[in-house]
What does this fold into?
Amino acid sequence: MPEDEVTFIASLPRPEAESRIKALWESGWSLQNIGDSLVPPRPKTTIHFWVKRAETREQQRMVPTPPPKSLTTSVPTRTAPRLRSISPGVPPEMAPRLAELSAKAKRYRAKTAPDSPLAQANDELTAVAKTLRSMGVPTASIAKAAGVSYRAMARRLSK
It folds into this structure.
């Protein structure tokens, strides 16, 4: 955060300072960046608490623009923090198929013949789930679409 902004916040009374911090956060500054810039540095939980309780007030000064968020850096830095990626979901056309396979796979047992429809459904469900997971779909989304618990899907994917 710019040095003059840090000095300005330090000169404000507590309610106005919290309002300014809330304005910074709403403009795109991260809680961590704001907390690290203050003197003394504050944890982001403290900054979050201040933002939640601050009143929205009209700002007398322009709020500085936040640093650019880099999509290319794998390690966040103060000037280019890492963006949180948006995970793809289960494609809508696959959800009914996952639910159907899951219903059959629930009846699969170890002694079931390998060529039975239940065994085939079990194998196909595992293959589809692993394919979706390799595409970046969260395990929780796959489990929800299949109608099973997260833990059941996580065990299936770990095989």
Remarks:
- The chain has eight helices and no strands.
